[in-house]
Amino acid sequence: MKKDEVKEEAVRVSGLYPKLHAAKQKIGKVVKNANNPHFKKSYADINALVESVEPILLEQGLLLIQPIESGLVSTLIIDIETGDKVVSSMRLPEIQDPQKVGSAVTYYRRYTLQSLLSLQAEDDDANSASATVKNTKPTITQERFENGLTQISEGKLTPEAFKQALSGYQLNDLQTKALLLL
Predict the structure, then answer these.
(1) Where are the beta strands (DSSP E) in 34-106?
(2) CB-based contact 72:94 (threshold 8 Å)
(3) Does this model's pTM top 0.70?
(4) Alpha-carbon dihedral of residues 87, 80, 65, 49, nearest 10 degrees?
C-alpha cells in the first residue's frame, strides 16, 4: 500500500453516524423560502429542506427517503453501504379530505426531516403555538396564597418551601411582590 493510499484511508468516513456528522457539518442553516400569511412569518418549505440536505447526504453515501406507511409519515436516512438507518416518524391525523391529508403529509415530511437532522430552520407556526403553552401554569387563589403566608408566620412552613410549592403556579403581581419580601 502506498503512503498516499494510507492517508486517504484515514480520512474516509465510514459508518452511519460519522457520515451523518460529516453531512451536518456541511448542511448549515436552511434558507427560509416560504411565507405563512396567517402568522406573517417565513420558513423553509419541504422543497428547500430537501434541496439543501439531499445532495450533501448523497455525497456521504446516505439515502434520504420519506415513505408513508400504516398512517405514519417517516423520514429515513440510510447508509447505502451498511443498510444502517435512522428514522423519525409522525402519525397522520385521521382526515377524510384528500387536500388536507396532502398538506399534513407535506408538513410532517418537513418536521420529521428537520427533527432527524436537528436543522436550524425556524418554523413560526410552532413558535406561535409554543408561546401559548409557556403560560399555561394554573393560578393560585389569594386565599391559598395568604394561607401559605400564615403558615410561614406560625413557623409551620419555611419561606423556601413556600416558594418551591409556588413554582408550579402563575402568580399575580401582588403575590410576586409579596414573595420578594420573604
Answers:
(1) 34-36, 41-43, 62-65, 68-69, 72-79, 85-91
(2) no
(3) no
(4) 90
